[in-house]
Amino acid sequence: MRRAGLGEGSSGNYVASGYSVYEEENEHLQEGLRAKVNALKSLTIDIGTEVKYQNKMLEDMDTDFDSTGGLLGSTIGRVKQLSRGSQTKLLCYMLLFCFFVFFVLYWFIKLR
């Protein structure tokens, strides 16, 4: 395939040298672009890995919250069942005592 300006003769050598300068510049720019594309590829792979890790952590947290919600729901159900009984006064005293103990423990921890 013959390119324009690269014919035979003395003027062809001048055009050919100008053409090689443009080719070298294009190759240099192409290498720079290739390096940037490789950097972006590496970055997107790292982002994908991080997203997968974060999604796994969120799924684990969701499972933990579901199990905790079930535990709290059953505990609240038991407390409601106790409050329906005839010993509501005793239950209130027990809850007030628990709050007092937790408050005292919090106060001791805060002073340390």
TrEMBL record:
InterPro entries: BET1_SNARE (IPR039899), T_SNARE_dom (IPR000727). Residues 20-82 form the T-SNARE coiled-coil homology domain. It is found in: Endomembrane system; Endoplasmic reticulum membrane; Golgi apparatus, cis-Golgi network membrane. The keyword Membrane applies. Belongs to the BET1 family. Interacts with SNARE complex members GOSR2, SEC22B and STX5. Interacts with LMAN1/ERGIC53. Interacts with STX17. Required for vesicular transport from the ER to the Golgi complex. Functions as a SNARE involved in the docking process of ER-derived vesicles with the cis-Golgi membrane. This is BET1 homolog. It comes from Betta splendens. The gene is bet1.
